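Sequence in, structure out. First:
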Amino acid sequence: MQSRRVSQASDEVSRIRKRRAVVAAVAAVLLGTAAVVGSLLSGDDSPPRWKEAAGRPVTAPRHTSGPDGTRVLLGRPSASHTLQVYEDPRCPGCALVERVIGADVRKDVRRGKYRLQYVGATFLDGDSLDGDRVRTGAFGEGSKAALSALGAALDTGEEAFLAYKDALYSARFHPDERDDRFGDEDYLLEVADSVPALRGNAAFHQAVRDRTYDAWALAMARAFQQSGTTATPKLVLDGQDLTTADGGSLPLSAEQYREAVDRRLAAR
């Protein structure tokens, strides 16, 4: 039964990635078209929210470092290993993996087995890199808006951030990737109300309403694009992709995850 569930999960992730490849191809065509007809357009055709954000200085949440606060490294500073997690808030494959191994990851971070470096993406909005800036896409705003709200949660604290990320990916709240529900601030706050540290948290709610971390969300999206990573979810432990023993796929069960982590750390 466990083997069948893992196989079904693997098939689902493969299907999702193929569908996202089509989305990325369409986004590239749209970007090329925009470049051709750009002289016929009056200014940037980005949604007003993100056009305004792109012109603001970046306000980085607490618990970040690096250029524009795009280095999000969580856990004990004494930990000698680092797990990098690349995720798009709207990504159903990310939701699937989070539901299967998320609790184990959080437990390992708390125990100091490794630090967790989070890299957020927005390509399911259709966003792409145009020189040194993010060109917003035609498929919505939910990934960017959720990433901005995650910034507000991170400013509250590391545990609040991890709990909110878990809630966003939960079966209860995570929408179909074609549904841009995360673009609705009221919905993002509804999700936050399931997190004790954020429920009734006036500073968090105000930051989401004021869109305090919109420019940071764009900076994070740019960092993801510049990383060279082309798909989510992606797990990288100490610089190497974290995969199952056959080296061919992500860990899609708690058992596969623990085996992959223990095998990698034993080899160090």
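Second:
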Amino acid sequence: MIEFLGGHSLDEATCYYIGRCWDTIRPGFNMRKPGDLDVFLENEWDVARSLWDRDWLMVDLDVEYTNFEFPAEPFLDYQRTFALQQPVLHAIQRVLSSVGIQPLHSVSGRGHHFVWKVHRTSEAFQQLAGIGRLSPALERRYTARHPPADESVGLQLGKAFSGLGLVMEYVAYRVLSESQPDCPIPVFPEAVDFGPQERGREMISLDISEYADPLHTRGVRIPFSVYIKPWQHPEMLTPEIQGKVPLMVMVPSNGLDTHEVAAIMRNLGKAAEWASHTSCLIPDCSHGMEALASLYLRSDARRFHDWFYSVEPEPPEEWPLTYDRASMMDVPPYIKYILENPNDSLLKPGPVRQLVAFLLEQGWHPRHIAGLIRSKYERDHGWFNQWYIYDAGMRADFHARVLAGMIKMGYDHQADIPAAVHV
């Protein structure tokens, strides 16, 4: 576990903080320095490390099975859950290995995690920083000081993280296009409910959502941390199911077959033995990342991103005269409901996908769709302090960009608009 924090000892760890896996989304609360790792282990807490790192740009790509109707399905039939993900796993491995990226691959309760890093002195880092785009609001966040180290992220690292997010969207599009024909259930870059499948409303998410928020707010689960997500979400486990789900830990694959690793993950004794002769070092893939970024720069995803950013959204002072006056005439009831009930409709990828698809069909530019979403995020809809911690503009851009990109480039064939539109 110490290796995953970025050093050979806790004193040498390069991550800025560790925290509970569900608490790292609320920076400033229950953040601890890496030296406090024993506190988490003694209390049998799950633990994540910050993506924010002193020496490296951290890269994370997750794959998760989601069942909106039967949330406990992946824990009750894990063999099927991981078998469904095999086409996605193989596509990720092909895409990454083609440019020389060999990530640390781990398995947890619902899927796979791929982590690697890029040195901040590398050509790849400079390339990603050149790709990245920061709004004035994000620039202010990245120059401000943040807990627990009371340091700033800095503009160059912030730009590189932004550029990384755009490149990872390209990766997600490639993985989806290669894996979906062989996958019996929907694969999508966000957790969208596509309706009934073989066993309820199930799908596989290529989770790149960490790139929707500022770098210092996101973390990644540490291998050999306990996996207690089912018990943190009561809707996942009914009383009659609880006794059928074992305590799990996330474990690195170290070359083993997925089903072998999944069995280790669900057995604490086997996991402890596995920990004694496997490594959690995060590989330096700076050279491979340079090659991947170069492919992105020649891709349709890059051309779409350039088009997306070719338009500026309306500034907040203009919202009363622009987004607030968007016509509700002839708007379907479900779109009207989303706009009138943004909390929590606009926090869910499914309703956002519906909104993006409808507004694209009406001729809206996706950057203005993002502007409309941001105007809802930044109004008083009971968000509490959410948009003081996260960045409303960054989140709105992410959802509009990813979902519009899926439609415009012809990957989202289930949207209620033409599948491929020239941009």
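Remark: Residues 312-408 form one domain.
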